[in-house]
């Protein structure tokens, strides 16, 4: 199994801004996911589960998901179903609302079905399905189009390639019609025995913001559990400022 295939990207909540507040519920979800992964025995390689978190100085996001190969073997081509849930908090500046600052909570989920093409040197997968998000803003911001809930269609592409020897190329891209959210992530890992390291690039956004990320990613095989650490500079966002970002991801097959 390629370590990077199932380590999910560290997505960012829309509208990174000032003064994030992290509620206990999000930390509880992340902690429960981590505990579940660390306690999962490595049985048959037909499914995978993942969890993780991402943060900037302005926002925080956690996620939990999984994938099931309907043939029961992740090492062969076939149809797969993937599902995920996520949540986060953010705030941003807006001089047109009382207090000049808006706090946002977001929750979302997706259910996708697709096909994975697996060879000795690559895994290419394409998925389509439904996704939805809910954004609660306080105070309410009528000027923000990402407000309330939307459900729509989502498509996702995922590719992992061994280009030359230990050098790899990992590419993921997705688009959801709900709030016109998009995410593109490119990593170029150099794989050693038990770990990998390489540059990491991303572009993400929605109806009201665009952001780019430049950084590095580390991956470790912890014996049945894969750990991913990433960090770098997040450029842009709703307030147009830059900030460091960091993320952690865990995945396991069973």
Give an account of the 3D structure.
By secondary structure, this protein is mostly beta strands. It has one domain (3-253): Porin, CATH 2.40.160.40. Helices cover 7% and strands 61% of the residues. The chain is built from two helices and 13 strands, in the order ααβββββββββββββ. The protein has helices at 3-6, 24-38; strands spanning 47-56, 59-69, 78-93, 101-118, 122-138, 148-164, 167-176, 181-187, 190-192, 195-205, 210-221, 226-236, 243-253. The protein has a twelve-stranded antiparallel barrel. The chain is globular, with a radius of gyration of 18 Å.
Outline:
The protein is mainly β and 254 residues long. The chain has helices at residues 3-6, 24-38; strands at residues 47-56, 59-69, 78-93, 101-118, 122-138, 148-164, 167-176, 181-187, 190-192, 195-205, 210-221, 226-236, 243-253. The chain has a 12-stranded antiparallel barrel.
Indicate the structural class: mainly beta
Give the strand content.
over 45%
Succession of helices and strands: HHEEEEEEEEEEEEE
CATH topology: Porin
Total helices: the number is 2
* Count of folded domains: 1
Mean pLDDT: 86
| CATH homologous superfamily grouping | monomeric porin ompg
Would you identify the CATH architecture?
A: Beta Barrel
Strand neighbour order, sheet with most strands: 1-2-3-4-5-6-7-8-10-11-12-13
Shape: globular
β-strand number: 13
Low-confidence stretches: 8-27, 33-44
